[in-house]
Amino acid sequence: MEEWSILIVEDDEPVARGLTDILNGSGYRTEWCTESRKVLEILKKQRLELIILDVNLGGEENGYDLCKKIREISDIPVLFLTAYKSEMDVVRGFKVGGDDYITKPFRMQELIVRVQALLRRGKRSAGLRLSSGELTYDIGKHQVYRNQAALDLTPIELQLVQNLLMGWPYTLTRDKLFYEVWDKDASFVDENTLSVNISRLRDKLCCSSARKTGY
In what order do the strands lie in the sheet with 149-151? Predict the structure, then answer.
């Protein structure tokens, strides 16, 4: 088994230690964190394959809020762990960017199976690349290249490039792009945001790919 690195975000120490023992015993490398600010710092500095995130962190910011911030900088798989069992809570978890949801108390084997499934899913996309002309998007590395030179793009710009490349050679409408990048995650923003981001993306790409938007 590859030594996958998993970050546990849980403010209940007994639960966190139990998760650590279970995952370490299954061959995973784990780290435990309770502060949302520290989670984002770790994510920017370290290689991680999965985040197990408790919904109720006990502070001003809950797991849903933290997941939204994680999605602004990373597509890392997020497994919500919570005592909330209502359908509304589960739906909310997926809407903010969660990949799976398991409720407490949980069975040890079920947790391991869900972790394995998320890690396999991430591994399948690790080597996937989208290309068109001078542009290549390495989905696993979340990096866009132009003539093999890496471009410095924001997370939103990366999502726009991915949708443009996946839609090629067909025309992508303004509504389609707006839905794929913002609205489907319930991130309601001013529609002018799309125009601003497309304009900035054109400047960075210096190519015609971003013009295939249909408006």
Answer: 129-132, 135-138, 143-146, 149-151
Convert the pLDDT of each residue in 172-204 to its tens digit.
788 878 777 776 544 555 667 888 888 888 888
Average pLDDT, the chain: 80
- Structural domain of 101: 5-124
| Rounded Cα–Cα distance for residues 24 and 21 (Å) | 5
| 110 shares a domain with 194 | no
Q: Return the residue matching tokens 């809020």.
A: 65
Q: What is the pLDDT of residues 10-31, one digit of tens each?
A: 988 898 999 999 999 888 999 9
Strand ranges for the chain from DSSP E: 5-9, 29-33, 50-54, 78-82, 100-103, 129-132, 135-138, 143-146, 149-151
Domain count, the chain: 2
Task: Report the distance separating Cα 176 and Cα 172, nearest Å.
Answer: 6
Name the β-bridge partners of 145: 136, 150
pTM: 0.59
